[in-house]
Amino acid sequence: MSPNSCWLCKIFRAEENGISSKVSLEEVLQWSQSFEKLVTSKYGPLIYKTYLKTEHSDENIEFWLACEAYKKITSQRKRISVARKLFTGYIQPQAPKEINIDSPVRNAIIRNIQEPTESCFDEAQRIIYMHMERDSYPRFLESRFYQKLKHSLQTNSN
């Protein structure tokens, strides 16, 4: 098994980066309560992204997090710059990390990209959130990746 697809290797890499030594058992257990608790926790998005890489769908959490940051931008000049980066990175057809959204949503963003508002990516972000919540989140909770992380923290706390 290659190091890129080995769940144990990923946990060890997380360990090397100090992530799994910082994450608490309480936080990890909360992730199973709801998808929202996972994506709004301190280390959840990073651990979830590591899992999504094994499914080749980490662009979803990256886009969702980028949209969260985008909404906080107050400068119109910066908003335009970041909106174009989001568009070229995730929205436009054949984008390097193209996300799975339907044509009407993509077309609405294309129409609004010249004068982007704080909410111009909201519908795409909502769709991606739903994809993750319905599809990859349940698999994450059942994955050996999550189960091993939870087990290792439970073992360490005893």
UniProtKB/TrEMBL annotation:
The organism's place on the tree of life at top rank: Eukaryota
Q: Which InterPro entries match?
A: RGS, RGS_sf, RGS_subdomain_2
> What Gene3D superfamilies does the record tag this protein with?
Regulator of G-protein Signalling 4, domain 2 (1.10.167.10)
Q: Which residues form the RGS domain?
A: 34-150
Which Pfam families does this entry report, sorted A to Z? RGS
Can you name this protein?
RGS13 protein
Q: Mind giving the lineage of the organism this protein is from? A: Eukaryota, Metazoa, Chordata, Craniata, Vertebrata
Gene encoding the protein: Rgs13
